Amino acid sequence: MIFFLTLWLIDYHLAKKQYLYGKQITVTMELGEADSVLWQMLPPEGRILEFLPTQIRQISLVHQQILGGAFQEVMGTVWQVEINLEDGNNLLIDQEKKAFIAVKKAKIIASYFNVPIIFISSEGKGKYAAEEIAFEAVAALPQTIKLQQKNGKFHIYSQWQLNNSWLLLKQIFQKSGFLLFLLVMNGFMLGFGALVNAIVLSNLGINVGVVYLPGIFHWFKPELGWTFWLTIAILVMIFKGANLSHAKHIYLDKEELKIYRDNQKIGQIKTKNIETTLLIKEPFSVILILGENQELIIQDLQQEAEFRAFILKLEEGLTVVNDQ
Prior knowledge:
By secondary structure, this protein is α+β, with helices and mostly antiparallel strands. The protein is 36% helix and 33% strand.
């Protein structure tokens, strides 16, 4: 088990390092004959497509998880810029770790071809939203997101309730899944490996004596005992749970918007510089507060409905302070 855990940690570290340095994507676009556009992605992907500007439906931004390593762990996320054609082809142009940088590149292309920009799987009231949030649905939204208003200032925050506990446990197990898988499977891997080894040696004519096959439940017994590995798993789950259960706060006035996680400030932006706010639903829900040269992201709420309630209350506050 120690060997497999060490192997996973090394693999994860190397894959994470590759993600942080960034994956190079080389794409070229040239004007071809008869005003056509020649799009080409250079090897190793190696793809070429020619199309007319009139075939471009929109420029889209896609929030995408990057998987890496032999175990395909999630390394992080990027914002991909794509050209969407009427025939269903989606042509990757670039990808960036920051949404505002990806938007700048999308604006250049959209301006040249005179087509709109949208964020895929997004909801919002302003620019770039794929769908508009229905404000009439506010009454049906969860009551875990609160808004306080005083003297033209707004405080929007998440409030823990008892029914959040089950949702939290579900998310903890999802985020701790690989470790729990190793916990259950390490005994099986050792037992099955010993069996395969005995079969191979026997086929080679080497006497392996009697092969003892324990009961099926013994195969799933961890090498170092359940107590040790359950302790490790519980510690990891507590750490994951602590990250997921932090209260999120937005403080908004005419001058600036500030975001806190519990009492820790995680970012701020001048209110006048906010270009749009969006609920991005894939690959997981986040609230994107987008400025021309920066962005703020709220994540790790318990359910999509809470994200929707958060952004609706944020839009309500922005409408008021922008009219002051």
